[in-house]
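[agent] plan:
  1. take the single chain provided in the ticket
  2. run structure prediction with default settings
  3. attach C-alpha cells to the ticket
  4. add a short note for the reviewer (M.T.)
[agent] executing step 1
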Amino acid sequence: MLSIHSDQYFMEQAFKEAQKARVSGEIPVGAIVVNEKNQIIARAHNQTELLQDVTAHAEILAITSASQFLNNKYLHGCTLFVTLEPCKMCAGALYWSQINRIVYAAPDEKHGFMSVGKELLHPKTKVEFGIMMQECSQLLTNFFKERRG
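[agent] step 2 finished; step 3 output follows
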C-alpha cells in the first residue's frame, strides 16, 4: 500500500502537475513543495508560454508559492519534488531558498544543474533522484516527438 507520506506519492503529485503542463502546451514539468509535516504547500507546472516569461519554470513558481504560504523567503525543512532535474537557473533559486531537500525524477543531461555539480545548491541541501524516472522521461520524450512530428 502506498503511503501518502512517501516520496513515490509526492512524485506522483508532481507528475500530475507535469500532465497539466502538457495539456496546456507547455513543456511537461511539474513540481510540488512539501513541508516538514508532510503537507503539500505548493503545486506548480511550467507556464513559460502562458505567462510569456522564460523564468516561469515549475520550480520557480513552486518556490514562490511555498514562500507565500509560509510567509518566509526560506524553505527550511521543505522538500521539492520535480519531474525533471532542475536547470541551473532553478538551482540558483533553490540555493537562495535554502530548501532542505530536492527529489527529481528524470535527469536533464543538457541543461540540468548536475552538469555543473551540486555546488549550485546550498551546502545543506540533500539531492535524490530516480523516482518515476521512466514515466517522467517518457512524458517529455512523447511531448517533443509530437511537437517535432
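[agent] step 4 note for reviewer: The chain has a mean pLDDT of 95.
[agent] ticket updated
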